[in-house]
């Protein structure tokens, strides 16, 4: 993983996920994120695992899918550049019930739970 460039920080601050919060807080979160490169089909998350990171797509696309009771996998939605996704584990520590995978080459910004919680608690105090 590598740190984000200043252009990536600006992009993330304007993303759907962070633009609803105070700009200084969004910028502080963004500068603490790291990037990860994924190849086509690489998994971000799979059912039964706990992942308490938030992910923002910098480039490329993610697919979110779920297996039904008959064992068939169905696409729930795509996550495009500027959009964010994370497991319910970010808030509740529940195991994932979906699969999140890269659809082609994808670059993500990763914000670990401890960074998000630390920064939002610090803002409240």
Describe it:
The structure is a single chain. Helices cover 26% and strands 37% of the residues. With 125 residues, the protein is of the alpha+beta class. It has a single domain, classed as Jelly Rolls (Sandwich). A hairpin with a 5-residue loop joins strand 5 and strand 6. Helix 1 packs across helix 2. It is globular. The C terminus is likely disordered.
Structural class: alpha+beta
Query: Which range does the strand content fall in?
Result: 35-45%
CATH topology: Jelly Rolls
Question: What's the helix count?
Answer: 4
CATH class: Mainly Beta
Shape: globular
Strand order in space, largest sheet: 1-2-9-4-7
Nearest-angstrom radius of gyration? 15 Å
**Helix and strand sequence:** EHHEEEEEEHEEH
- Average pLDDT: 80
Helical content class: 25-40%
Q: How many distinct beta strands?
A: 9
* First-last Cα distance: 31 Å
List unreliable stretches of 5+ residues. 119-125
What is the name of the CATH architecture?
Answer: Sandwich
Largest sheet: 5 strands, antiparallel
Count of discrete structural domains: 1
